[in-house]
């Protein structure tokens, strides 16, 4: 069901500082910050030849990553994102198999303008997984 690795998300306490580290010493191509109000985060994508890195920081006082940042004040890997052909088929298959979809269980539009869902880490060896519908 899952396809390519779309991105690895790293939560950071200071987005500007993290962007400078990636664009400076690492020499990466760093995009522009985007506020994703519905998701409660500000994101920046770093394009790599084989995938992307997503730097994320809290946006707003109800950001869902605030608890992660309290436990990990220096930041850290937050989630990994895999591509799927059809998000609704993925939801059906996953819920039939007993996996827990976070939130209301319905897809939201992610940073790339595509439907996304998040899967509870307890169902996937402690890893928060995002699935993004990407059609070829």
What does this structure look like?
It is a single chain. With 136 residues, this protein is an alpha+beta fold. The chain has a single domain (5-133), classed as Roll (2,3-Dihydroxybiphenyl 1,2-Dioxygenase, domain 1), CATH 3.10.180. It is 18% helix and 35% strand. It has helices spanning 15-23, 66-71, 87-96; strands at 5-11, 29-30, 34-36, 41-47, 52-58, 76-84, 108-109, 115-119, 129-133. Strands 1, 2, 3, 4, 5, 6, 7, 8 and 9 form a 9-stranded mixed β-sheet that branches. Strand 3 and strand 4 form a beta hairpin. The model has no long low-confidence stretch (mean pLDDT 96).
Key words describing this protein structure:
136 residues, alpha+beta, 2,3-Dihydroxybiphenyl 1,2-Dioxygenase, domain 1, 3 helices
> If you compute it from the alpha carbons, what radius of gyration comes out, rounded to the nearest whole angstrom?
15 Å
Query: Per CATH, what is the topology?
Result: 2,3-Dihydroxybiphenyl 1,2-Dioxygenase, domain 1
The CATH architecture: Roll
Number of strands: 9
CATH superfamily: 2,3-Dihydroxybiphenyl 1,2-Dioxygenase, domain 1
- In percent terms, what proportion of residues is strand? 25-35%
Uncertain stretches of 5 or more adjacent residues: none
Based on the structure, what is the oligomeric state of the protein chains?
single chain
CATH class: Alpha Beta
Strand/helix succession: EHEEEEHEHEEE
Sheet/helix structural class: alpha+beta
- Fraction of residues in helix: 10-25%
- The number of helical segments is 3
Q: Provide the number of structural domains.
A: 1
- Largest beta-sheet details: 9 strands, mixed
Distance between the termini: 15 Å
Net shape: globular
Rounded average pLDDT: 96
């Amino acid at each position: 069901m899952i396809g390519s690795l779309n991105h690895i998300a790293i939560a950071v306490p200071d987005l500007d500082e993290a962007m400078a580290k990636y664009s400076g010493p690492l020499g990466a191509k760093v995009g522009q910050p985007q506020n994703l109000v519905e998701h409660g985060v500000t994101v920046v994508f770093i394009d790599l030849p084989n995938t992307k890195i997503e730097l994320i920081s809290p946006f707003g006082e109800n950001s869902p990553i605030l608890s992660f940042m309290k436990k990990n004040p220096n930041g850290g890997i937050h989630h990994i994102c895999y591509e799927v052909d059809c998000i609704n088929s993925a939801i059906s298959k996953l819920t039939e198999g007993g996996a827990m979809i976070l939130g209301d269980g319905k897809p939201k539009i992610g940073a790339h303008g595509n439907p996304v869902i998040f899967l509870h880490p307890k169902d996937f060896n402690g890893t928060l997984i995002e699935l993004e519908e990407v059609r070829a």
